[in-house]
């Protein structure tokens, strides 16, 4: 959208005439046509959406974008398994308490696989560094891919491989064929950073070819996911957002930003924000440390994201060592699903706060997040069915305004007549699981 004198105008990028590779990953358009697409015959061109809701919270459950997408192109989707994934890049492979040198090597990724298996996490990502840039089939000598994928299979953990989009495009069929032989379960494709016709065609081509080999696709450094995820169900999530990775070099992914996203970016489809920080900071104590990153906001703010943000492939961005030191928080992170049967937005105001309840089977989860303003919010559990339930709640600790990792877990019995008041610290959150 482009602001105009009296409103907004929608614009699509023009058709690329000349492209240039800059560095090892940025394939940039240097000359464009005065039209948006080249086609023969009749086809459907891009559509525009303006979503209007009576309540801010209605934007979170609006399915307009999904309904406008083309129906699924896949006959069999039974092999597509949503779930959480242990991710290496954000935490810079900073693991501890081991007797080997951590880094991009077979031993480190076996450690990730062991962690995933311990908590029932179905996937582990090998991000940048596992192959020599420029050739997505040239595995670095520190990694024995056959040994690693066999180990993962034995532990019932799937491997997802990160790749630069243009390199993958140049080697697409041989690369995917080899990944299939290794038993790889998905690819994380990065650095497109464009949405012109050529790249949109690439999105479809990769999703289609990956589906033929029963592989998931997660696009990063990409455009918004609108028009893709219904058509290609194996396109399980997409970044298209200023996510947690920015905390490695910036203070821009702060709580106010985080409580804006559910009403804006998430309107367009699944959002791979990559949450899960166990090092948490208040506004005054935050520092962007690339190799030892932290999040802005409280620990419970991070936990609540797993309920509020929709992503069928949901990252655990911190180090397995960090999670192993936090068994109580990990109890929630291991249990929280990534797919839902029902969603209710209990309260919310764009850029201020949000409270979402989601059901998976018989269990309900609630996530609440606030900006830098501390809040008391009322929660009415009348959406529960008849009966008595246990609620395990994670709330900001009394000192969370200064020490953002401070939190408290409580358990109690509730029913559909229960009304609760929760307190959120500045940049805070609240997360709960309700189960029989």
Q: Overview of this structure, please?
A:
A hairpin with a 3-residue loop joins strand 3 and strand 4. The radius of gyration is 22 Å and the shape is globular. It is α/β, with parallel strands linked by helices. The chain is built from ten helices and 21 strands. The N and C termini lie far apart (46 Å). The protein folds into three domains: 11-55, no CATH class; 66-339, Aldolase class I (TIM Barrel); 344-435, Golgi alpha-mannosidase II (Immunoglobulin-like, Sandwich).
- Give the C-level CATH assignment of the largest domain: Alpha Beta
- The assembly state of the depicted protein chains is single chain
Given helix and strand content, the structural type is: alpha/beta
Order of neighbouring strands in the sheet with most strands: 10-9-8-7-6-5-13
| Biggest sheet statistics | 7 strands, parallel
Task: Output the CATH topology of the largest domain.
Answer: TIM Barrel
Principal-axes shape call: globular
Features:
436 residues; alpha/beta; TIM Barrel; Immunoglobulin-like; 3 domains; seven-stranded parallel β-sheet; six-stranded antiparallel β-sheet; 10 helices; 26% strand
